[in-house]
Design goal:
Structural class: alpha/beta
Number of strands: 13
Distance between the termini: 36 Å
Strand order of the largest sheet: 3-2-1-4-5-6-11
Helix content: 40-55%
Length: 308
């Protein structure tokens, strides 16, 4: 197939593109600046510069590529794009726009060019269902009143999911990424002791290695998946379990521990909620319907391998 990867130069895109190419697909991958065009070409893609927030730029890129499927991986998260302060207006601003305006631009371009299938990125890192915990399969739509993520972020994810599902596509709710290009920022924060334990670390997170996330995405493309899928590993875990272990794997000192009231003053409600009240997610649907098998079923071995 001809696959158009919007956001192909991101951490997941750089793993996804060569996997698609290896599967015999013709890939067009986008980036926001010319500096990463060479890297995308090295990965085997036709590389193009595209501004996901500019409708004409998106329309032209999609029309030129004539894809059979669009994969929406556009975000502006990570230390480079958003910094580390989740209270900052900057942190979610552009990602929210890419998940709303950017989604609209891609879907409009898909319709104009007759693209029959659409796959988009969503999130299941710590916003699992209130009822039944992580053992409960996907719930649709996302809970806007979840206390584990900022409402503006949840609103934009829910917007993306509804738009994509209405168009007959698939929304992949990835866990927290780790692996090449994703673990480095996390490990550096831990080494600098800027990633503290908050309260008792009772929040439950779901993780996913980039390799497994990319493989699930390829399956969603090839099987023309429809609906919502949690793309997470087999072991949701409390922060009190995975954070000290991540520090150990990174060769860092144990994380500092801040009481919730102090962390709330310093980092805000979102950080406290994620670290103390998050709920992981279940991956049974993706395994059953996509035939997805995990290479890294647990973050325990995955962290060790990524930081070896």
């Amino acid at each position: 197939m001809r696959v158009f990867v919007a956001g192909g130069s991101g951490v997941l895109g750089q793993v996804l593109v060569p996997l698609l190419v290896a599967g015999g697909h013709e890939v067009t991958a986008t980036t926001t600046g010319s500096g990463k065009l060479g890297r995308l070409r090295e990965l085997g893609a036709e590389a193009v510069v595209m501004d996901g927030l500019d409708a004409s730029s998106v329309r032209a890129a999609v029309a030129a590529a004539r894809p059979d499927v669009i994969v929406h991986q556009m975000t502006a998260l990570g230390v480079t794009h958003a910094g580390t302060n989740m209270r900052s207006e900057r942190y979610f601003r552009n990602t929210k726009r890419l998940r709303t305006e950017g989604t609209d631009h891609l879907l409009a371009a898909a319709e104009a060019s007759g693209v029959p299938h659409f796959v988009a990125q969503s999130n299941a890192g710590g916003n699992g269902p209130r009822e039944g915990g992580w053992k409960t399969p996907e719930q649709d739509p996302l809970d806007l009143d979840s206390s584990t993520a900022p409402r503006e972020s949840m609103e934009s994810l829910r917007y993306t999911e509804k738009a994509v599902l209405d168009a007959g596509g698939a929304a992949l709710r990835y866990g927290w990424f780790y692996g090449p290009g994703a673990t480095d920022d996390q490990a550096e924060l831990v080494r600098k002791r800027k990633f503290p334990m908050i309260g008792g670390g009772t929040g439950v997170w779901s993780w996913i290695h980039l390799d497994d996330a990319a493989r699930a995405t390829v399956l969603a493309v090839e099987k023309q998946a429809r609906g919502v899928y949690n793309i997470v590993d087999d072991e949701p875990a409390k922060v009190s379990e995975w954070l000290p272990y991540l520090a150990e794997c990174a060769g860092a000192k144990p994380p500092m521990n801040f009481p919730a009231w102090l962390a709330k003053l310093m980092a805000g409600d979102v950080a406290v909620s994620m670290m103390t009240r998050g709920l992981g997610s279940n991956n049974a649907k993706a395994k059953a319907e996509l035939g997805w098998e995990l290479v890294h079923p647990s973050w325990r071995q995955g962290f060790k391998d990524a930081l070896a």
